[in-house]
Amino acid sequence: MSAPEIKLTFDEPVQRKKVPKHLADYSPDERREMAKQFGLPAYRGVQVATHYFSHLSNDPQSWSDIPAEMRQSIADQLTPQLIHLVKSVTCDAGTTRKDLWKLHDGVLVESVLMRYTDRVTVCISSQAGCGMNCPFCATGQAGLTRNLSAGEITEQIVAAARACADGELPGGPTRLSNIVFMGMGEPLANYNAVIRSVRNITDPNPDGLGISARSVTVSTVGLVNGIEKLTQEGIAVTLAVSLHTPDDELRDTLVPINSRWNIKEVLAAADAYEKSTGRRYSIEYALIRDINDQSWRADLLGRLLKNRNAHVNLIPLNPTPGSKWTASRREDEAEFVRILESYAVPVTVRDTRGREIDGACGQLAGAEKIKSD
Known about the structure:
CATH superfamily: Aldolase class I
Shape: elongated
Structural class: alpha/beta
Radius of gyration: 21 Å
Order of helices and strands: HHHEEEEEHEHEHEHEHHEHEHEH
Distance between the termini: 37 Å
Strand order of the largest sheet: 1-2-3-4-7-8-9-10-11-12
CATH topology: TIM Barrel
CATH architecture: Alpha-Beta Barrel
Mean pLDDT: 91
Helix content: 25-40%
């Protein structure tokens, strides 16, 4: 199967409105400078960061260490509201919640909050749309609108942490434990904002949320230059590579970036990341009926990964409306697992949460856009 002529988008389109600056866009030292630029003492930046990251407070009237008459003004300057909730939809008895957010310029993005027995995970977006053009992905079908700022990314995470602390999910108050960059967009195509957001997650209070890097997953369709930069950061997050097939011929079609960096190059970069960080990486593999779920492809994938420190996440495809792509048969899925296990490759089939709430990233935003148009 030959690859179609598809234009890959790496540079974001010109924005009509500039995203307001937020303290989450800056490092802890830069936040002090940010406060000074507004004519405030540098320590105000530290105080507001403490309320934002440590207390998850978005109510400046509760900031008792700041004079009452200054609270709203300081909040507007240092923590402007960047995302506005449009709607939330739930399933799985309320333990899965998808939030649709409107950004300052009207762009829509999504995040998904999931409570399990042993953890709470939020899946967040790093771009509005995506420029990678993977044909089976709802976000990829929409194309790239723009990159999100670190503030817009971090706001999704802090909103999820606040929802957990406030007991908005069944089971009562809890703590956000895991963050996955697997929502809308290609995280490594928005590298600087994503890394700033990762540091906001992993920096200890009051500079960040104090969540372990081991609880953060950054996905990529295979931007080798981004993986190489991530290797140098010294942050041992989990790397997830969206491979989707073990052969270049099909991958050129399913994941068009493969025409720039092929499977061999992507796995070599992932291996180097694993060697540098000591962190096993994940191979994400969406099982698509009669496209990439054949036994011989499972065999080839097993042989590719048998001596690597990698774990395979098989993802039953959540088909998008009108798409020709659909999930594999259960028997083909089971055979795929059996073959990988015969090579001693660790493999799991991902929990298919969110199917009844437009679970595939981009579906809810796409439906809302169509409705508003």
